[in-house]
Amino acid sequence: MAEVSEMRLRGPYGLLPDSQSLVKLLCEPLELFFMNRMAFCTRINAMSLCCAFMAAMVTPYCLGANKPTIPGEEIDQSVIAALPHQGAANPKVISHIDLTELFGTLTQWTFVAVQEGGQSPTELEDHGPIHVCLVKASHADCSESFYQQTGKEDPWFDTPYHLIASSVVYAGQNQSSPLLFVQLCGAEGFNGNCGIATALYRYDRGADRFTRVFLNLTGRNNNEVTRFVASGALQGNVIVDYPTENAPYTYWIEVYRAEKSGQYVRVLRYRGRTGYGDGNPLAVADSEMPEILSRLGSWKPGDALPIPAHLPRGCSRLYMRQREEWCK
């Protein structure tokens, strides 16, 4: 039997462990089965059904074991060649994530972000826009739109200029249910503000493609935050907070959760108790966490207070004050 590469063993149900012994265990009996199938599977009807099932389950792994991998440099070059603007000045890859093993994809998939050189139209940036691309094998799709059109006079406002974050996050425990997390910022205005777009993508195995399941837009200057919850009772949820438009100036709190389809929908919205500039060192989502959990049925007064993933420096004690969690 031809040698099987243990780093490239793949099938329609994900990756097998990187073990040559397991490869031999699965593939060699399969070869023997095909060589002797006429003598073996005609003995007992039930046994023939078992053989057919084993062949259907194992053959994709063995036949796809030697599938070649496209080098990262070649993928980056294919992305640069696919940029929608011809003659982009000094394009530079600023993020490259191989999604293949992390998501157990059927085809090699890669996330690539490219920063153009040059000058932005506002003259407040020292570089051009960012292109976000999902690459299937070496075929790049850089057509993702993150901002609603604001008019032809200000095209840079709805164009990403800064990559804040790009990573793989997990909606389930033990690193299960992976999602691609992307956060971008548009061109900065004269007041330093920019539009922050936050997106999540899940892998659709049936279609062998990545689908955007969440998109949210906020500003930056008023403590707006879009947070993916990476652990705890709300793992996999997204919490968004942004200031209210009128007094008393607090924050609107929104929670988004994935449906069975994988698409995120809003499951909670309320006017929070955290005051704008009230001196609480905790982030808004952390100060509102007891109230959020209470409204979702996961916390009640008297329970232990939720501990933020990142406590402010010098925080020695957590306590409740007017239904808001504080740090002292």
Please provide a written account of the structure.
This protein is an alpha+beta fold and 328 residues long. The protein has a domain of 54 residues. It is 20% helix and 32% strand. The chain has a 4-stranded antiparallel β-sheet. Strands 7-8-9-10 form a 4-stranded antiparallel β-sheet, with no helix packed on it. Helix 1 packs across helix 3. The radius of gyration is 25 Å and the shape is globular. The chain starts with 9 loop residues before the first strand and ends with a strand.
Average pLDDT value?
81
The end-to-end distance, rounded to whole angstroms, is 67 Å
Q: Please, how many helices?
A: 7
The value of Rg in angstroms is: 25 Å
Strands, count: 16
Uncertain regions spanning at least 5 consecutive residues: 1-27, 37-44, 55-66
How would you name the oligomeric state of the polypeptide chains in this document?
single chain
Shape: globular
Strand order of the largest sheet: 3-4-5-6
Helix and strand content put the structural class at alpha+beta
Strand content: 25-35%
Succession of helices and strands = EEHHHHEHEEEEEEEEEEEHHEE
Main sheet? 4 strands, antiparallel
Helix percentage: 10-25%
